[in-house]
Structures are given as C-alpha cells and as structure tokens.
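Hi R.,

Here's the chain you asked about this morning:
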Amino acid sequence: MMKITKKLPRYGDKRLIKRFALFPISIIQNHIKDTRWLEFVVIEQKFAEGLTDDFWENVRFINK
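And the predicted structure, written out as tokens:
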C-alpha cells in the first residue's frame, strides 16, 4: 500500500519559494509597488481563497 505524504494547503498557510525572475514580478505592499526582474528572488506566499478556485498569493519579497 502506498502512503501519501503531501499535505494539502489550508487558507492562511504560508510558504517561501525561490525563483529566477526572467519577467518582471510586482508585489504591492502598504501602497508601495516593488518590481524585480533578471535576478533570483525569494517570495513569501499565502494560500488564499478566490471566487472560483484557491491560489497562492504573493505577499512580499524576502531578499533585497
């Protein structure tokens, strides 16, 4: 028997992802827009509820 080890995300769960921003990634936080591209970035994401589906929402950049 196979054991499933992946946990499904719940609303409000957070995660960190590391990506290379080949195209511009913009995050608006406290009415300030921060855009980064052509560099490695670490993004904090929060699992959010949408009208038709659920998604990971970008919250802020971790590194400067």
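The longest strand covers residues 40-49.

Let me know if you need anything else.
M.
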